[in-house]
Amino acid sequence: MSAAEPKDLDDPALRTRAVAAARGDAPFDLLISGGRLLDVVTGLTRDADIGIVGTLIASVHAPGSRTDAAKTVDATGSIVSPGLIDTHMHIESSMVTPAAYAAAIVPRGVTTIVWDPHEFGNVHGLDGVRWAIEASRCLPLRTIVLAPSCVPSAPGLEVAGADFDASVIAEMLRWPGVGGVAEVMNMRGVIDGDPRMTDIVNAGLASGKLICGHARGLEGADLNAFMAAGVTSDHELTSSADLLQKLAAGLTIELRGSHDHLLQEFVTALNDIGHLPSTVTLCTDDVFPDELKNGGGLDDVIRRLVRYGMKPEWALRAATFNAAQRLKRPDLGLIAAGRRADIVLFKDLVDFDTKTVIANGQVVSIGSSMTVSIRSFDTAPLENSVKLSPLNENDFKVTADGKRVRVATIDRPRFTQWGEAETVVEDGFVVPPVGSTLIAVAHRHGKVEGRPRVGFLTGWGTWRGAFCTTVSHDSHNLTVFGGNARDMAVAANAVIAAGGGMAVAKDGKVEVLLPLPISGLVTAASLEETSASFRAIRKAMEKIVDWKPPYLVFKACFGATLACNAGPHQTDRGIADVLTGKVLERPVLEIL
Fold it and tell me: What angle do CA 316, 319, 325 make, to 5 degrees?
C-alpha cells in the first residue's frame, strides 16, 4: 500500500479530470463496457459501463452511452464486482514471499489484504515488520500491514526472537504503512488488566487505528471485558452459536476459510437470520502453499461459502463493502463514482473464475495471468535465523531417578487439558507413557539456552516416526513430534542444517525435507515448487501417523505450542498454562 493512500484520491488534478470525464467533456483513461454490475449494497445486478480516470472511478453509466476512452475492456458476459478484501491473514503461512503470494492471488480477484506479519515479528522483531512493509510496498496488491500485538503470544510462558511491549507497538503505529494493532491473542492479559496488554491496547486506541482481536472461547463477562478494553473484531469462531453470540455482542466478524469444517453451520446460521449483517467480513487467516496453488485465497473462501448455501451476493458483499467499512476505507469496496478503481470481472458467481482484474485503475491480470511484473525483495536480512547446534537422541528424552514416576501429560490436540500418567524409568530416562506421543520444543532464536524441553501428548495417535518444524505458532521455535527419540533427532538435525523448515523422519532416516531458510518460515522458491514439496511432507506424514479429523489433523502440529490459548501447551520453557501463568519445566511430577 502506498503511504499516500487513501488521500491520493483527493489530488485536485485527478478529481478535476474525473469530473470532466464524468460530464462527457473529456475521455476516460479506461472504459469497462458490456458487463453486468453487481451492486454489493443492494445485492442487485444491472447492465452498466464504468469509466475510469487514473486510479478513480469517474462514472457508472448506461451501457453503450459512452465510447470515448484511451482503452476499453470488453466485459461482455461478465459479472463486475469490487476487488476482494481479505481482512485478516498471514502471508508467511503460505511459505512463499510476498511477491509470490501476490502473483497467486491478484489474478483471482484479491486486490487488498490485511497482513499481520507477527510470524516475521516473532522471529526478527521490528526488522521483520519493516521488511514486510518494504517487501509489499511495490506489489500490485494493496497490503495493509498491522502491528503485531503479541510478540511473544504469551510473555513469560515462551521466548520468541523479540519482545514487543507497548512502546514498540506505539512506534509501529506511527509508521504510515501500519494500519492498526494486529490480533490481540493474549486474551487473559487484556481481560485481567495485565499492565503490558492494557498498555498495548491503549496504544492502539491512542493511534485511532484498528484494534483486531482473537476471542477464542470468550463469552459473558470475559467477552465484555475484552471488548470494553477496545478490541473490535474476532476470527476465532468455534461454532454457529459462538458466531451468533459474537455478532450480538457487536464484534466485527472475520469469517475465516481455514476452518472449513465450521463453514456449513456458519452459513446455515446466517441464512436463518435472513440477511447478512454489516459486521460480517471474510478472511483466509492461514493458507498452506498447496491450498493456495490449487484453491486460491479469499476467492476460495467465497466459492466454498456459496457451495454451502450462502447467496453469492452476500459473500461478495462481505468480501468487499463490509470489509471496506471495517477498515475505515470508504474508497474501497464499492463500484461507484468517486471510489477507487479496484474492479474484478468474474465469469460467473459459481466458480468465480476471473476474466480481468483491475487494481488502482490499472489492468493487472487477464485470463488469470498477471499483465504486470512483480519485483521480488531481497530476503537476505531474514536468513540464518535458526541458531541451534545439532542435537542428539538423548536431547529428546526425559531424565529421572528411581524406577517409576508420575508425569504430567497434555491431553487432546485442540482444547487441551492437563492429564497424568504413571510410567517406568529405564537407564535414567522416562519411558513415554503408553499411548503417548513425544513433543519437544527448543528455543532457536539465540536469546536463551536452546536445549529441547520435552513433554508427553495424549490423543495424538500412534506415531511411527517424527516430524520437525520451525513453523510453530507463534514464537516459531523448533518443534518436534515423534514416537521415538532417534527419529526426532534425525528430523531436527535436518531442519537445523537447512536453516529452518520441515522434515519427516522414519526408521532413522529423513523421508522428506522442505527447507524454509527465510526466517525458518518461507522460501524464495516458486509457489509451484513449494506446493509440491509441502504435498510431499503431507504424504510422508500420512505414513507415520493416522489422522482423525477435525482435531487430530496435520495442521494441529503447527498450533500445538500456541501458549496464549487456554490449556497446557508445550513451549521452549516447558509445559505452560496461560490460565495459571505457570510453567512446568519438566513433566516429571513425582518419583514413585
Answer: 120
